[in-house]
């Protein structure tokens, strides 16, 4: 049975791996001004030269700069939003474009230059942004050269504050911890064919939802034992408990304890955004499976696995 589960997990990882490579169809339109929500806000990395800024405009398909509001991030923003001291402005290369959306749209992230954002996935950005208090926005991320991508959320926060939104800095810093935790776990398991970052994204959503439910039901934050059980159950639900190491599990537990001490734990808006993101992830998987079935290769994988036990 264990062998069967591992093989089935591997086949799921194949499908989810394709999902990770799939190109999202949405992108912010800068050809016209949205009269309801105004101009998109573009935040350039402070380390870009003028030529690189123009190249970044091209990546975002900005033909008329009058249709966007432009600003940049520097080392001071890293400290203000993420609590990172001693940052170097010249190393900030990744840029973002942010557009507010109608209520209920959720947080959608498109990485324009997937080859140049080497560590962070679109769903990891979205998950962490929700923790920070971001809601109903479309975010495009781009970089003119290869970067890890961890600092891109700084630009998102600066864009939102430029448009009058107030952010809880405790939550932005915990969100950055979330981004770094999920990325570190993904990197630790990069060579493990049974691991899939999409299932880790779902587990993170589950952990945050369950911690909120516990707080709601008992009127206080989860105990240390409850936090450990929530993490254990989420990993089991998404077939990760036998795949990631105890050290990685401990990282998730440490994050969960930090998360439940922020105002995000009591936010109905956060739950709504998490539900929307979870639905988007499920739709991505369903769409890829349907595509695989229509092209015939999904059945071949299943038949191959079945043949091993005949």
TrEMBL record:
Listed Pfam families: DUF1002
Superkingdom of origin: Bacteria
Organism, scientific name: Holdemanella biformis
InterPro entries named in the record: DUF1002
Keyword Signal: yes
Record's keyword annotation contains Signal: yes
Signal sequence bounds: 1-27
Keywords associated with the record: Signal
Stated name of the protein: DUF1002 domain-containing protein
